[in-house]
C-alpha cells in the first residue's frame, strides 16, 4: 500500500520540474476556435468593457464588467497611463487581478492575448477540480460561470539598440475566474517553459536597478493605496521564478485564490495545500535558525529552475567555464496509473476523500506531509533526470540506516538533481555534521521497500547554511552580477564575497541616473542604459544635441605682445547625430582671438568627444565620460612658438550640460587683422591604453589677405587622461587605435561681438579606410541622414535608416519636440520633491530643509538649523503685535504687524483714524492693530467708499471731485480737485488749481512717478507713446491664453477662438469638432440667436441676415437640496456634491449647471444673496446664477478679460476679486460688475488662486511662478501688499481662508503638501504631505476638500490628522477646477 501511494505521489509531483511541470496542453482550452476575443497587438492595449453574464464577487463587492490589459492584468475599469501602474509599486489604486503584471509588448507578432466568458460544463468542471485541489473544504463549490484570459507567447517590452538583438524570451500564462453569485475563485496557471522572463525594465528607469520583477496579486483599488486591502503573491525575481515550479494547490504551476464572497471577505485567501516546499528542498534550503521556525512564503524560497541556464546566470559566461562533478541519470519510476502521465486530469483523484490536495494513499499521507524539521531530504519528489553519485570529497548520509520500531517515517529515496549546477549547489550547501547517507538507487529502478527507513536527525544538530547575500543567481537585489574570471569548481575553496570590494549596493550612486550598475569579482562598473551612451558614470541620450559651458583663462604672447584674460565664457553646441561641434569664446581680447584662430584644437576636443561613430568604434564621451583632462602642446613652424592648453572636464550639471575649464599658456604667432584663416581637413590617430588616450599629428593652415596667401603648420601632441572602470574591461574593449576624420573646419572672429568661433565636423572609425576607393556608407554613419538634431538615426540594410526621437522628446524623428515630463506626470520625482522641466529631460529639486537622495528623485531631511522664531527664544514683541523672521542659523529680525508701529521688539498700536484711512463721509473706529469705518447717515458704502444715498452713482473721479468741491473754495495749498473727462474718468494730465503744479495719473488717479512739473514749466507728456509695432489684439491674446491653458495642444472638444490675419475675430466661430457654430461681433461676443446645430453653420457675413435656428438647451439651474454641500467646476459644468456631516454623500451627487462651450475655473458663492459666481476662461467672462429653480446664468463682466481663473466673494462688502493669468492682474468689482478697479498689475507672473477674509478685510492670492512662487496678502482695498510665504513652496494651486480655524491654507502641486499658517504667515503647519496634483481647496468644519488633477476627483482630508477620509470620482473623468463650500448660513462676524 505504501509503495503504491508513493508512486502516486511521484506521478503528481513529477510536474515539479523539467518534463514533469504543468504541460502547456493542460491549460484550459483557448484561442479563436473557442470563441475567444483577441486583444489588439501592441505595447499598452486594453480590451473593450466586457459585460459579465452575472455579477462577479470580488472582495465584498460585485463586479459587472471586466477589462483585459496587455500588461498581464484584468480590471473593472479602463487602465490609466501605463507608467502609473506598470512601473509603480503594488498594489494598484484601481481594482486589479494580476496573474503577471509587467511591461508586456505583443507588437510585431510577439504573441497573442485571448479572453472570453464561458459557461460550458467542460470548462467549469476543470476549473472546479483545480479549485478543489487547493481548497479541499470547498468540495461543494460548483461554479456557474467562468472568465478565461490567456497570454500566449507574449514578449517583454524592450528598447532594441543597434548593438543588440531582440529577445526571443516569451511567456505563456492563464487566469481563470470561476464564480457563482456568492463566491469567486481565481486560478493562475503557469505551464512548463511558460515563464522565460521574470520582470521588465521600467521605460523611465532613472535608477541603477536593471529590472522590476513581475507582480502577481490582487488589489481592491482603494484610494489610499497602502491602507486598502490587497494581496501580493510575489515580491522578488526569485518568487516569480518559482511560480511554475511550486504551488499553493499541490499541483506545480497552479495557484488558487478565494477572491470574493457574499460573506465578509476582508482580503484574498490563498490556498495552502502544498504551501511548503518538498522535503528535499527543506533539507537544503538557506535559512537561519531564527527563520526556520517562521512560515516562509513558498514563492520566496529559491528553487532550481529547469528552464534556466544556471551556469550562464551564475557566472555570466559559458557553461564550459564551470567544472561539474560527474553525474549519472536515474531510471524513471514505473507508472502505476493508466492514461497519459502528463495529463493533469489523470493526476487528480476526485473519487476518494482528500484533505491535502495531493494524491496520496491514506497510509502515507500524514507521513509524507509531516512538517517535522528533522525530516530528511527527499529530492526525488521532483522526479528529475539526474542522480548525484558518491563523491570522494563528500560524505553523504548512510545507505542503510534504520529506525526504531514504531517510527513511521517515510522510506528514503535516492537523491535526484535537475542539472549539474543543482548538484554543485547541493555540495555547497551540504552540512558536514550530517553523517548518514541515503540508500543508493535500486538496480531495477524501483523505490526502496517499507523496511528501508529514513535516517534520524537529532533535534538541534541540523544547522542549514545560507547563501552569501551577493551570491547570484539567488539574489533579491535588482542589479547585474558578473564574474570576469573562469572559475574551476573546487568545493574546498569556492567562495564569493564582496566584503573587500566596492559593490553596487553601496556605491550605485556613482552611476548616472541613466545607467545600471554591475558587480564584478573585483568591484563594480556602471553601464549606460539603452538609448543612452557614455562611460556609465555619465550618460547622455543618443542622437540628442548637447551643450557645454565653461570658462577660459590665458596668459599669451601673441607675436611680441602679451595678452592676458581670465574666466571668459566658453559655450559649445554639439549635434550628436552627425558629429558637428560649434564652439564660441566670448569677450576675448581681439589680439588673442586672432592669434588663436589656427589652434582649432581648442574646439576640436569637443569634436573628438562627440564624433559620429562608425560601426564598432566609440567617440570620446563613450570612453571618458564627462570627467577627464585634455593636455595639448602645439609647436608652430617656422617660428617654433609653443603654447600649451589644458582643458579639464568637471562633469555634467543639473541640465546635463558638460562643464569644462580651459587654461592657455605660451606663445603663438600673431595673425594680421585683414587675414582670413583657412584650416585644411585632417585626420588624427588616437591611441588608447589604460585610462590614457594619446595623439600626435601635424596640421596645416593658410593665411589669406589681399596681398598674402601663405601656408603654415604646427605639430600637435595631445594627451587625455580619465578614470576607466577596470573590473569589466574585457567585455567592452575599445580598439587600440581609432582614426578621427575632421572636415568642414571654420575659425572666425566677430569684432563687434568679440566672439571667437570654431566649427568642426567629426567622424571616428577605422585606420584602414581607403578614401580613394568608392565606399557606400549608411547615412547614419556619414551624417547625411535627414533626422532631427534631437533624434537617433538607426541604420537599416543598405542605405535604409529610420529616425527615432531621443529620450526626452517625441515626434516622428524628422521633427522632435521636448516632452514636459513634469506636466505629463511621468517624472520619477518623489512627492516631496519638485519636478523642473529642462530641454530633453527634467530634474528633481528639494525644498528648503531637504537634500536630494542618491536616487536623485527623492528628498532626505537635513537637520534644521537653530530657529529662534520657531523655538520661541527670540526677543520680538508678542505674536499678536509682531512677527519673527528667521534669516538662517541663529539670525532673526522682528517686524511689527500691520496696525502696529515700532522696531519689532516694541510695537504700539497705530491710530489709523488719525491718518484719515476712512472716507471723508465716514466715521472711523480705532481698535488694537486694526480699525473700522462706517458711512455716516445719508451715505452708503463700506466706509472706505461712501456716496450719498440720493446721489446718482458716480465714478471714482467724480466722487472725489464732488467731495473736494463740498469743502468750499480752493485754498492755496489745499486739497486738489481732480479733473474728469466726459466719461467720468481721470484726465491723464492733472494740475493743482492753486499751486499750478501738474502731473500725470494712471486710470485709477494715481500719480505717475517722476511726472510732476513745477508751476510755469511745460506740462508733462501724459499721452501713451505710439507703438513701434502692432500689439496683440484681444482675439490673439485670448487665443494665446487658452492655448497655454490647454498645454499647447487642445483636445478636439475644446474651444479656441479663430482670428483673421489682422487679429480680429473671425465672424464665424466654432467649438472644436462638436459642430456647434455661432456668429460673433467685433469684440468676440456671440450674436444672440445665431448658434447653430451640428452640420448647419450659420452665415455670418455682414451682408447676410442670421438664420432662424433652434435655440440651445437652456442652462437652467437644477436646485440643490438643503444643507451644506460642495460645488465644483468641471469644464463645461458645475457639479453638486452634498455632505453628510463631513462625509461625501457621493450617491446624491449630480450636475448643478451645464454650460456648453465654457471652461469654468474659479467658483465661489455669495451666502447673503444665495448667488453662485464663476469665471470662464473660454468665454472670457465672469457670470453668476441664483440657486433658485430654473434660474439662468447672467454675465456680469465680459470685457477686459483674457484668462480669468481664481475668484473669491466678500459677502460683507458685496465685492468680488479675481485673478487674470493672461493679463497678470488682480481686480475687484461690485457683485453686479460695477465699480471695477485694478488692484495689482505689477510683480505678478501667474496669479492663480485668491481668497478673502471678510471679517478682517484681508485679501490673499498665490502666484504660480515656477522661478519664484509666492503667496501674497493685502487689504481688500489693495493697501499694505506684502509677501506672506515664499519659501518651501512649489506650485501653490489651491488657497482658502478657513473661517473655522482662522488660518490661511494652501495645497501645493509641487511639494505635494497641504499646509496652513496664521494670517501673518507664522505658525506654519503641514496637514498632509502626500497629495497627488491638487488644484483648488476649501475647508469646512474639521475637513479640507480639494480637487485633484491626477485623480480627476474631489478628495477629503481630515484637518487634525491629515488622513484621507473620502474620494469622489465623477462618472465623466475630466479635470476638476475650482471648489467651494455652500453653507445654509453666512459665517458670523462684524466689520
TrEMBL record:
Positions of the UniProt region annotated as Disordered: 312-350, 434-453, 1009-1030, 1090-1114
Cross-referenced SUPFAM superfamilies: EGF/Laminin, GFP-like, Growth factor receptor domain, Thyroglobulin type-1 domain, YWTD domain
InterPro entries recorded: 6-blade_b-propeller_TolB-like, Cueball_EGF_LRP_Nidogen, EGF, EGF-like_Ca-bd_dom, EGF-type_Asp/Asn_hydroxyl_site, EGF_Ca-bd_CS, G2_nidogen/fibulin_G2F, GFP
Disulfide bonds: 991-998, 1070-1077
Keyword Signal: yes
Keyword terms of this UniProt record: Basement membrane, Calcium, Cell adhesion, Disulfide bond, EGF-like domain, Extracellular matrix, Glycoprotein, Repeat, Secreted, Signal
Domain EGF-like, residue spans: 776-817, 818-860, 865-908, 909-947
Start and end residues of each Nidogen G2 beta-barrel domain: 544-774
Record keyword Glycoprotein present: yes
Annotated localization: Secreted, Extracellular space, Extracellular matrix, Basement membrane
Superkingdom of the organism of origin: Eukaryota
Major location category of this protein: secreted
First and last residue of the signal peptide: 1-21
NIDO domain: residues covered: 99-262
Limits of the Thyroglobulin type-1 domain: 954-1022, 1032-1100
Start and stop residues of the LDL-receptor class B repeats: 1170-1213, 1214-1256, 1257-1301
Feature: compositional bias, Pro residues: 1095-1114
Record's protein name: Nidogen-2
Species, as recorded: Gekko japonicus
GN (gene name): NID2
Amino acid at each position: 500500500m505504501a509503495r503504491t501511494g508513493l508512486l502516486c505521489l511521484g506521478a503528481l509531483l513529477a510536474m515539479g520540474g523539467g518534463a514533469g511541470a504543468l504541460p502547456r496542453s493542460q491549460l484550459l482550452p483557448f484561442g479563436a476556435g473557442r470563441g475567444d476575443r483577441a486583444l489588439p497587438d501592441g505595447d499598452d492595449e486594453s480590451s473593450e468593457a466586457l459585460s459579465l453574464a452575472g455579477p462577479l464577487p470580488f472582495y465584498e463587492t460585485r463586479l459587472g464588467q471586466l477589462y483585459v490589459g496587455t500588461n498581464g492584468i484584468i480590471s473593472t475599469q479602463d487602465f490609466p497611463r501605463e507608467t502609473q501602474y506598470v512601473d509603480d509599486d503594488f498594489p494598484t489604486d484601481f481594482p486589479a487581478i494580476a496573474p503577471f503584471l509587467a511591461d508586456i509588448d505583443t507588437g510585431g507578432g510577439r504573441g497573442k492575448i485571448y479572453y472570453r466568458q464561458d459557461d460550458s460544463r467542460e470548462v467549469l468542471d476543470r476549473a472546479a477540480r483545480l479549485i478543489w485541489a487547493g481548497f479541499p473544504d470547498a468540495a461543494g463549490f460548483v461554479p456557474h460561470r467562468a472568465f478565461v484570459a490567456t497570454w500566449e507567447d507574449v514578449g517583454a517590452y524592450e528598447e532594441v539598440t543597434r548593438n543588440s538583438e531582440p529577445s526571443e524570451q516569451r511567456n505563456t500564462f492563464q487566469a481563470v475566474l470561476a464564480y457563482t453569485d456568492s463566491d469567486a475563485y481565481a486560478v493562475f496557471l503557469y505551464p512548463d517553459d511558460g515563464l522565460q522572463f521574470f520582470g521588465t525594465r521600467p521605460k523611465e528607469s532613472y535608477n541603477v536597478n536593471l529590472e522590476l520583477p513581475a507582480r502577481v496579486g490582487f488589489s481592491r483599488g482603494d484610494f489610499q493605496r497602502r491602507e486598502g486591502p490587497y494581496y501580493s503573491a510575489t515580491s522578488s525575481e526569485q518568487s516569480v521564478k518559482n511560480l511554475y515550479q511550486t504551488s499553493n494547490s499541490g499541483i506545480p504551476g497552479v495557484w488558487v485564490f478565494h477572491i470574493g464572497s457574499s460573506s465578509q471577505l476582508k482580503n484574498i485567501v490563498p490556498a495552502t495545500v502544498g504551501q511548503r516546499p518538498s522535503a528535499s528542498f527543506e533539507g537544503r534550503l538557506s535559512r537561519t535558525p531564527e527563520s526556520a521556525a517562521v512560515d516562509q512564503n513558498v514563492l520566496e524560497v529559491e528553487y532550481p529552475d529547469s528552464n534556466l541556464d544556471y551556469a550562464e546566470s551564475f557566472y555570466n559566461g559559458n557553461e564550459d567555464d564551470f567544472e561539474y562533478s560527474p553525474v549519472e541519470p536515474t531510471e524513471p519510476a514505473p507508472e502505476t496509473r493508466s492514461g497519459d502521465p502528463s495529463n493533469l486530469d489523470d493526476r487528480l483523484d476526485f473519487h476518494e476523500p482528500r484533505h491535502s490536495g495531493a494524491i496520496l494513499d491514506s497510509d502515507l499521507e500524514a507521513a509524507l506531509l509531516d512538517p517535522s524539521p528533522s525530516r530528511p531530504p527527499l529530492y526525488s519528489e521532483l522526479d528529475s533526470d539526474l542522480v548525484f553519485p558518491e563523491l570522494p570529497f563528500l560524505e553523504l548520509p548512510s545507505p542503510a540506516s534504520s529506525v526504531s520500531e514504531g517510527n513511521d517515517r517515510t522510506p528514503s529515496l535516492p537523491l535526484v538533481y535537475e542539472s549539474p549546477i543543482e548538484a554543485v549547489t547541493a555540495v555547497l550547501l551540504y552540512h558536514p555534521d550530517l553523517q548518514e547517507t541515503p540508500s543508493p538507487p535500486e538496480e531495477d529502478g524501483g523505490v526502496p521497500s517499507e523496511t528501508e527507513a529514513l535516517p534520524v536527525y537529532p533535534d538541534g544538530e541540523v544547522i542549514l547554511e545560507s547563501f552569501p547575500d551577493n551570491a547570484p543567481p539567488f539574489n533579491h537585489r535588482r542589479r547585474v552580477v558578473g564574474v570576469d574570471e573562469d572559475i574551476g569548481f573546487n568545493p574546498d575553496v569556492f567562495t564569493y564575497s564582496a566584503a573587500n570590494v566596492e559593490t553596487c549596493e553601496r556605491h550605485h550612486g556613482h552611476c548616472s541616473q541613466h545607467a545600471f550598475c554591475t558587480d564584478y569579482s573585483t568591484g563594480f562598473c556602471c553601464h549606460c542604459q539603452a538609448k543612452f551612451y557614455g562611460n556609465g558614470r555619465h550618460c547622455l541620450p543618443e542622437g540628442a544635441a548637447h551643450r557645454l559651458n565653461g570658462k577660459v583663462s590665458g596668459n599669451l604672447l601673441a607675436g611680441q605682445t602679451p595678452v592676458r584674460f581670465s574666466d571668459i565664457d566658453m559655450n559649445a553646441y554639439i549635434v550628436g547625430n552627425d558629429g558637428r561641434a560649434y564652439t564660441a569664446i566670448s569677450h576675448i581680447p581681439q589680439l588673442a582671438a586672432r592669434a588663436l584662430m589656427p589652434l582649432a584644437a581648442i574646439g576640436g576636443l569637443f569634436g573628438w568627444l562627440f564624433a559620429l561613430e562608425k560601426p564598432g568604434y566609440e567617440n570620446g564621451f563613450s570612453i571618458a565620460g564627462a570627467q577627464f583632462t585634455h593636455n595639448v602642446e602645439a609647436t608652430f613652424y617656422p617660428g617654433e612658438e609653443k603654447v600649451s592648453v589644458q582643458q579639464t572636464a568637471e562633469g555634467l550639471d543639473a541640465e546635463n550640460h558638460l562643464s569644462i575649464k580651459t587654461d592657455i599658456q605660451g606663445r603663438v604667432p600673431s595673425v594680421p587683422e585683414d587675414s582670413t584663416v583657412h584650416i585644411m581637413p585632417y585626420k588624427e590617430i588616437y591611441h588608447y591604453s589604460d585610462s590614457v588616450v594619446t595623439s600626435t599629428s601635424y596640421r596645416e593652415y593658410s593665411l589669406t589677405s589681399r596681398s598674402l596667401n601663405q601656408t603654415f603648420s604646427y605639430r600637435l601632441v595631445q594627451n587625455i587622461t580619465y578614470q576607466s572602470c577596470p573590473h569589466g574591461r574585457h567585455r567592452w574593449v575599445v580598439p587600440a587605435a581609432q582614426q578621427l576624420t575632421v572636415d568642414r573646419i571654420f575659425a572666425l572672429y566677430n569684432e563687434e561681438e568679440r566672439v571667437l568661433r570654431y566649427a568642426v565636423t567629426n567622424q571616428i572609425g577605422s585606420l584602414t579606410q581607403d578614401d580613394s576607393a568608392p565606399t557606400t556608407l549608411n547615412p547614419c554613419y556619414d551624417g547625411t541622414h535627414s533626422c532631427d538634431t534631437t533624434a537617433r538615426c538607426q541604420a537599416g540594410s543598405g542605405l535604409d535608416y529610420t529616425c527615432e526621437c531621443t529620450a526626452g522628446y517625441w515626434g516622428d524623428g524628422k521633427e522632435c519636440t521636448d516632452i514636459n515630463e513634469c506636466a505629463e506626470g511621468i517624472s520619477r520625482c518623489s512627492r516631496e520633491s519638485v519636478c523642473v522641466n529642462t530641454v530633453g529631460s527634467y530634474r528633481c529639486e528639494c525644498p528648503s530643509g531637504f537634500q536630494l537622495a542618491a536616487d536623485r528623485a527623492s528628498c532626505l531631511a537635513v537637520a534644521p538649523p537653530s530657529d529662534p522664531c520657531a523655538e520661541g527664544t527670540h526677543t520680538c514683541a508678542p505674536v499678536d503685535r509682531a512677527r519673527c523672521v528667521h534669516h538662517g542659523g541663529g539670525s532673526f529680525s522682528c517686524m511689527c504687524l500691520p496696525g502696529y508701529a515700532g522696531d519689532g521688539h516694541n510695537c504700539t498700536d497705530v491710530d489709523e483714524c488719525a491718518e484719515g484711512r476712512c472716507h471723508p463721509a465716514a466715521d472711523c473706529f480705532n481698535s488694537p492693530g486694526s480699525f473700522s469705518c462706517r458711512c455716516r447717515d445719508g451715505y452708503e458704502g463700506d466706509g472706505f467708499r461712501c456716496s450719498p444715498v440720493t446721489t446718482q452713482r458716480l465714478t471714482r473721479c467724480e466722487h472725489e471731485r464732488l467731495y473736494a468741491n463740498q469743502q468750499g473754495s480752493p485754498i492755496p495749498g489745499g486739497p486738489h480737485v481732480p479733473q474728469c473727462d466726459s466719461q467720468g474718468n481721470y484726465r491723464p494730465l492733472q494740475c493743482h488749481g492753486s499751486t499750478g503744479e501738474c502731473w500725470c495719473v494712471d486710470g485709477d488717479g494715481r500719480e505717475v512717478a517722476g511726472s510732476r512739473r513745477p508751476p510755469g514749466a511745460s506740462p508733462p507728456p501724459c499721452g501713451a507713446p505710439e507703438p513701434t509695432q502692432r500689439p496683440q489684439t484681444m482675439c490673439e491674446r485670448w487665443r494665446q491664453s487658452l492655448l497655454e491653458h490647454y498645454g499647447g495642444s487642445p483636445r478636439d472638444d475644446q474651444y479656441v477662438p479663430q482670428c483673421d490675419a489682422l487679429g480680429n475675430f473671425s465672424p464665424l466661430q466654432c467649438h472644436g469638432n462638436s459642430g456647434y457654430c455661432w456668429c460673433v461681433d467685433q469684440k468676440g461676443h456671440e450674436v444672440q440667436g445665431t448658434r447653430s446645430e451640428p452640420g448647419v453653420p450659420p452665415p455670418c457675413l455682414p451682408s447676410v441676415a442670421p438664420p432662424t435656428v433652434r435655440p440651445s438647451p437652456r442652462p437652467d439651474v437644477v436646485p440643490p437640496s438643503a444643507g451644506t454641500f460642495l460645488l465644483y467646476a468641471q469644464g463645461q459644468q458645475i457639479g453638486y456634491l452634498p455632505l453628510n456631516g463631513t462625509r461625501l454623500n457621493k450617491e446624491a451627487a449630480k450636475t448643478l449647471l451645464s454650460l456648453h462651450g465654457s471652461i469654468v475655473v474659479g467658483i465661489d458663492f455669495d451666502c447673503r444673496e444665495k448667488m453662485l459666481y464663476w469665471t470662464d476662461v473660454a468665454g472670457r467672462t465672469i457670470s453668476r446664477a441664483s440657486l433658485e429653480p430654473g434660474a439662468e446664468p447672467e454675465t456680469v463682466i465680459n470685457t477686459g478679460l483674457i484668462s480669468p481663473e481664481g475668484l473669491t466673494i466678500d459677502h460683507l462688502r458685496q465685492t468680488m476679486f479675481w485673478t487674470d493669468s493672461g493679463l497678470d492682474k488682480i481686480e475687484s468689482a461690485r457683485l453686479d460688475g460695477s465699480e471695477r478697479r485694478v488692484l495689482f498689475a505689477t510683480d505678478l507672473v501667474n496669479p492663480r488662486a485668491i481668497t478673502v477674509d471678510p471679517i478682517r478685510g484681508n485679501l490673499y492670492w498665490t502666484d504660480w511662478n515656477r522661478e519664484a512662487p509666492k503667496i501674497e496678502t493685502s487689504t481688500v482695498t489693495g493697501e499694505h501688499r506684502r509677501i506672506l510665504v515664499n519659501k518651501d513652496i512649489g506650485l501653490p494651486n489651491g488657497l482658502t481662508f478657513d473661517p473655522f480655524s482662522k488660518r490661511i491654507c494652501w495645497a501645493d502641486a509641487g511639494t505635494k503638501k497641504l499646509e496652513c499658517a496664521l494670517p501673518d504667515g507664522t505658525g506654519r503647519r503641514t496637514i498632509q504631505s502626500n497629495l497627488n496634483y491638487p488644484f483648488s481647496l476649501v475647508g469646512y468644519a474639521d475637513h479640507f476638500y480639494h480637487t485633484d488633477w491626477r485623480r480627476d476627483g474631489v478628495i477629503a482630508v481630515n484637518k487634525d490628522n491629515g488622513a484621507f477620509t473620502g474620494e469622489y470620482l465623477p462618472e465623466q473623468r475630466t479635470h476638476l477646477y475650482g471648489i467651494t463650500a455652500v453653507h445654509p448660513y453666512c459665517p458670523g462676524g462684524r466689520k
